[in-house]
Amino acid sequence: MRADRPQVRELTGGRLHLSHGPIGVVLRAWGEPAAVAAAYRAAAGRFADILPELCRELPRLKAPIGSGEPPESPVGRRMAAACRPFADVFVTPMAAVAGAVADELMAVMRDAAALERAYVNDGGDIAVYCGPGVALDIGVAGSFGRGPIPGLNGRARIRHGDGIGGIATSGARGRSFSLGIADSVTVLAADAATADAAATLVANAVDIDHAAILRRPASALDPDSDLGGRLVTVSVGDLPRSAVQAALQAGRQRAADYVARGLIVDAALMLQGETVALDAAAPTTAGKEQRRIPRAPQKGGTCRTQNAGRLATEGTLP
Fold this sequence. Notes:
about 325 residues, T-fold, disordered C terminus
């Protein structure tokens, strides 16, 4: 992680862009102009300290959950807390870093002002908030065709009372290493850090042994990787449909287990033109509605971003 000078830039559409070293965030809030301005000031002020805090305790953040001293920074604690329920497999707090940053900025914004709705998008891992009577439509683009660019192939509408505060996407085509071969795995959860960790681990589970899959030790590709000598996916050639379906089913089993344990709300898994969606109803209590990730088309489109699947976010009224 680098600790360059943080940058704050206004974008079109009322959005704010925050960047600092490897962290790049786009956020937007809706509400009274004074409230939105206060939320943006608070987010920009908090953002300046996040990367230095994480850099100071990087060894703790790269250690497997439960193996050493817990993180002390606010974002580090969010990372560890999000990953702890998934520690029956190998995971470090770094699996939730982008989502935890998004959650931290969302919390700061909401503490600073009363907002109608908001999102914080950290490279495709997104914290979301919807007040009563409003919604956010989030497009899911994670299925790849013949090119390297995924296209929009699904949508999730998030409303107040759904119990969804985060959506994240991970996979072998993303900016981070993956132990699996998924083009993308998109997860809905109560917060972005949990969605981030779960998407990483479900994507790891979308896997199968095949000669068309090239793997290398993570440490050979990045000596500083928290994955050490574990084999990560470098490329995936054309697979027979039976292999694609078997890999997706392995990932679906892990995702279904997370839903059954109450760790996530829903998930959609994509690989080489095939899609598996849990279509799991969100946990409900009295007065809460159910929302699902809609089934995505079987064929992918075209549109590339940093993450395995881009989540294009825009606010809408119900």
